[in-house]
């Protein structure tokens, strides 16, 4: 490995690996994350040779001073990355064959059990000659998979024991030897290897803003950005958050092959597709069309969010909450308000989808993949809908501890203050009382906002106008509220009313929704009624709210002990207690 001074121009992950190496306490490393992305060659930013795959970077940059650089995976077998070690490998094979009676001289073994035995012999012989060696084991999850020991085959057990033994081998630790395991997901590798004190894990993150800027300048090669893109360089850098260098290269190559400049729409579509591919359907990428002005009612809550949006625009990340808890009955527009907050600031917004799997290790691997994308997207709004059911709790059981590990990982990320203002979490639920205290405490979901159905005529008319705008309807009736003050209607109810009225008007051959159709549908409409459930959802939102100014007057004046007693009574009536 190069000395420490040239490493200053290398990516952060390479510097971290080098620091662990120079500590002389570990010789085995696991590289995970964006291991398929392009890496800068010839110094940071690709000043000399441009960019290349990780294997090329390891051979030409990080381990360029080693006497031997080898690689192995199940498909290609043993290879020399340095282009000069094959004669030494052949000598080792000949000696190994003479001792063990194996036929390796004629063909290098691809089976991992035999290959690792041969590689160990090679390492020890070269150490005896005081040579420096780097060994790269690609697709490490196929060599030491994450599985219970009892379910491993005899060969898998042999490989795992070999890797564990190498990691703590005194001879390897004392010599100039580095063993690098490469895998996209850390969760796919045996926990015994990952958690071993003699093994260092190093994450390769997706490029940050500075990294994307350097790569784009490399691709431009002195040309002006306007020659390849309709989007300026700095705007392109910001809008491409979450994309790898490989994605950016494909985008530029495709534009050049079509002799067509990259448009803003093309960039956003490429980003959406890339994130969907990286997360494999685990995240939904939401592009807000409106800001908070599109949200009807909830003026106090909107005011709070506007203040946060202003701080974010000014770059005052340190004053922003780590996250928000939005509570309230179903149909109060929690998800819509959150996406509008993202639109107010103009930052990406993603929504968690189901990342859980019945297969061991897959859930953790999915979560790791999601986290890597979130870290690259910042600043980003993260929506967790139905959070009480989605996130589970620390006390969950029956799935070999998967739910506990998922909960702990989520809580750790949400509470990591280095991401304050960079990842803004929104936990949405109509039952905040079922959400674990660990996630609701200060330092995670710090601000608790309560939303309620419209009560006053002004609130109902505002929500009605917003729904008309959303559905692109022009309605003759302007004062909607005077016809429904005796009804408790949510935003979803009003939207359903308008759709039914439009359906009725269309059937009568009317191009425009008339007052008659609206009143007819309104007269006929019976909103779903779940009085006990709705009262409970309202009261637990009141109980959870952290600001009195967000509560309607009737709720703000409620005695807290009476509130708690009524909630408990409702739970008993609904047979929850």
Description:
The protein is α/β, with parallel strands linked by helices. The chain contains 24 helices and 14 strands. The strands form 3 sheets. Strands 5-4-6-7-1-8 form a 6-stranded mixed beta sheet, with helices on both faces. A 6-stranded mixed beta sheet has the order 9-11-12-13-10-14, with helices on both faces. β4 (about 70-75) and β5 (about 75-80) form a beta hairpin. α9 packs across α10 and α13 (about 300-315) runs parallel beside α14. The model has no long low-confidence stretch (mean pLDDT about 85).
Brief descriptors of the model:
single chain; 577 residues; alpha/beta; six-stranded mixed β-sheet; 24 helices; 14 strands; 12% strand; elongated
Give the helix tally: 24
Give the oligomeric state: single chain
Quick one: biggest sheet?
6 strands, mixed
Class from secondary-structure proportions: alpha/beta
Q: How many β-strand runs?
A: 14
State the low-pLDDT regions, or none: none
